[in-house]
Fold these 2 entries.
Entry 1:
Amino acid sequence: MIDSNPGAAPRAESDRILIFDTTLRDGEQSPGASMTLEEKLKVAELLDAMGVDIIEAGFPIASEGDFEAVAQVAQRVKRATVAGLARSAAKDIDRAGEALRHAAQPRIHTFISTSPLHMKFKLNKEPAEVLEMVTASVKRARNYVADVEWSAEDGTRSEIDFLCRCVELAIKAGATTINIPDTVGYTIAEEYQALFETVRARVPDSDKAVFSVHCHDDLGLAVANSLAGIKGGARQVECTMNGLGERAGNAALEEIVMALKVRADRLPYHTSIDASMLTRASKLVSAVSSFPVQYNKAIVGRNAFAHEAGIHQDGMLKHAGTYEIMTPESVGVGKTSLVMGKHSGRHAFKEKLKELGYELGDNAFEDAFLRFKDLADRKKTVYDEDLVALVDDEIVHAHERIKLVALSVIAGTGGPQSAALTIDVDGRRLTYQATGNGPIDAIFNAIRALVPHEAVLELYQVHAVTEGTDAQAEVSVRLAEDGKTVTARGADPDTLVASARAYIAALNKLMVKRGRHRPEILAG
Ligand code: KIV
Ligand code: ZN
């Protein structure tokens, strides 16, 4: 059974797998998963501390927000290489080069489609033109940085001769990493392994570049395919925390890392990831993207180490290895522990946060402490999970322009239900009383009256952070406007307050996404 790092023996550099995390780019592209700049910086810092080798921070040409995220992550991150994505157009590459200007270790990641389907219908280009663009794009990127990754979009549905020619030209032009993505999640393991073996064998100077896998999960095969690509000679894996990503998502970082650790007997490779930080990273990404982690998700799901069946519990009591192939501690799951009560002071609270992996600035710490005291007054037992939900909520909402100040609700059988809501918008206090078809409807109507908007509520979901009727509620709200979707979360022991927090957080995110500078206010 895996506990910490099993490999005491020296390990060859040729067996090291580079972890390229694209949570902030491919992950953030999934509908509704958009993150604010502050959230991206928090995630990047944690990924860096966890040992990720390359952090893809965004697609600088896509928006001002993406440009800023790449530029700021590049300045903030101390250890990892920071990558910015670019299509093969000159303006894309120039923008990526500009965003990465201050990075200690910058990488431009440029891509173009190489499959017949994509070249004809998406690019409307002849293969000969694509070949020219491969060379031109890589050469242009090399004028900015020495570390250039070239990707063959829809690589797994490309003709092998053409793909090899593209890879050859990319290496000749100076690409140092060659990525062959399974863009549409179509390949299967043996096929993907053989693809890497073939390309590496046929392309001259293939040993001058690191080969990379990038798998999507449309058939649920992303992790298996990534591991097969490694067997085929790839030494970089592109993946995301919680498998966040376009459509069915990308290969999950935590699954790749733990598969390599737990099955080191058949997969003799290693990464630089500190696996004990996986749970913490998963929770942060889930909080900032507002994408819940499914209960039975491998490695980081809340049931991943839970044993319900009597026969399993019996086995576990006799020897944990009977039903566990890795320890919960090895991925950072601590025993659910009672932390502190209402008498705990600032010092104990700070120590506890440190143990959970948080270091907050003075203001954020003070706000979190006040909320903890409030929670401890209202809730019998405060668990680590409660603190994680509370602090993540604080981090996510700290920089918001619309803030919840007060809420009181009249609910019950009589109807109509009503909500009196006070919010703070850029320092202005606003209050409104609204009725609705139920208390949640009344709260949302009050918000709509104070901050008018056209966005449509697409999802409203509640789940309990821990057990018991006094558990904190975590509410997710998704809003859609003009084809843009945002999801946000709010946590509080009162489900109605959590609902208001979540809706307001979604509006804040929507404002950032719209690039609008002032929320329009109707009532005041
Ligand atoms: O899935 C894909 O092909 C991509 C590329 C841009 C690397 O995300
Ligand atoms: Zn992708």
Entry 2:
Amino acid sequence: MMEDYQFRQAMGKFATGVTVITTEVEEEVYGMTANAFMSVSLDPKLVVISIGEKAQMLERIKKSQKFAVNILAADQKELSMIFAGQIEEGKEVPFSRLGDYPVIEGAAAQITCEVSSEHVEGDHTLFIGRVTNIHLTEANPLIFYSGRYRSLEEEEVSAI
Ligand code: FAD
């Protein structure tokens, strides 16, 4: 019998970046840390995010029908922890704007999307996002695996 912890451990072996998904509902800005993010299609440009049924972000994106994926930079671990509810609330977060969307300043990449479709799968909802705008910086990304934050330098095996 496959246990939950075994599934979690196996998924944790898949090293990822860390994103903060941002959206805006009735002029209030919200963020949520997520690593379930993937590029789906180049033409048209589509991405997917996966939001748990218990996350408040679920209703927020259903309402706004738009979101931004902010790929965190290596020095933004604290932001990841804030938006995962792992450290105390009440911190002022420096949001900026990309067009009509709230985004995280200093992120390695900011990708704004309109919801193209949503699919409920088990206890998560997959949102397919049609990419409307992108902003890139030179920053290295923050890395996450086996339940820990890492930096790319530490993990570098060899230069290509
Ligand atoms: P809330 O509980 O409302 O918000 C989360 C936190 O963000 C709160 O502490 C809140 O104070 C803070 N916050 C929100 N908006 C603001 C603001 N404007 N200014 C300052 N602080 C603010 N869950 C998934 O569903 N999918 C994933 O892919 C996923 N990946 C994860 C990856 C990692 C590395 C981690 C650590 C967690 C991941 N989670 C994921 C879990 C998810 O981040 C947490 O369950 C989160 O707390 C859910 O937030 P919420 O939408 O319920 O919103």
